[in-house]
Design goal:
Elements (H helix, E strand, L loop, with lengths): L1 H21 L5 H17 L3 H8 L1 H4 L3 H18 L1 H29 L5
Helix pairs in contact: 1-2, 2-5, 5-6
Pfam families: SpoVAC_SpoVAEB (PF03862)
Keywords: Membrane, Transmembrane, Transmembrane helix
Organism: Alkalihalobacillus alcalophilus ATCC 27647 = CGMCC 1.3604
């Protein structure tokens, strides 16, 4: 049953993003920003963790999870290190994913040649 909920919740998040692009005429960058901010706000309100517990990968794979990670890391570090923890917490939680994306993107650019 967890696979069904993951599919439905993840699909709903993607549908919301597509509707923002189609009907609100937002660019992909604006849509992505709106989804990241939505994930951050939901985590700040304490609503995103229950969604992750309910839907699993359906809530952790979409871009809204990045906003959740930013706020979650900042709040956790702020409790232990104060105001400076807000900044360090953001980098601590998200640095592995961002670093991996940069490294693998660079490796792919070295291996493959663009057509043109």
């Amino acid at each position: 049953m967890i696979f069904l909920w993951a599919f439905l919740v993840g699909g709903l998040i993607c549908v919301i993003g597509q509707l923002l692009m189609d009907f609100a005429k937002l660019t992909p960058a604006h849509t992505m920003t709106a989804l990241v901010v939505t994930g951050a706000v939901l985590d700040g309100l304490g609503l995103y963790e229950p969604l992750i517990d309910f839907a699993g990968a359906g809530a952790t794979v979409p871009i809204t999870s990045f906003g959740n990670s930013l706020v979650h890391g900042a709040m956790a570090e702020a409790e232990t290190n104060g105001l400076i923890g807000v900044i360090t917490g953001i980098f601590e939680v998200t640095s592995a994913g961002i670093s991996a994306a940069i490294i693998f993107g660079f490796i792919a650019a070295l291996i493959f040649k663009p057509k043109g």
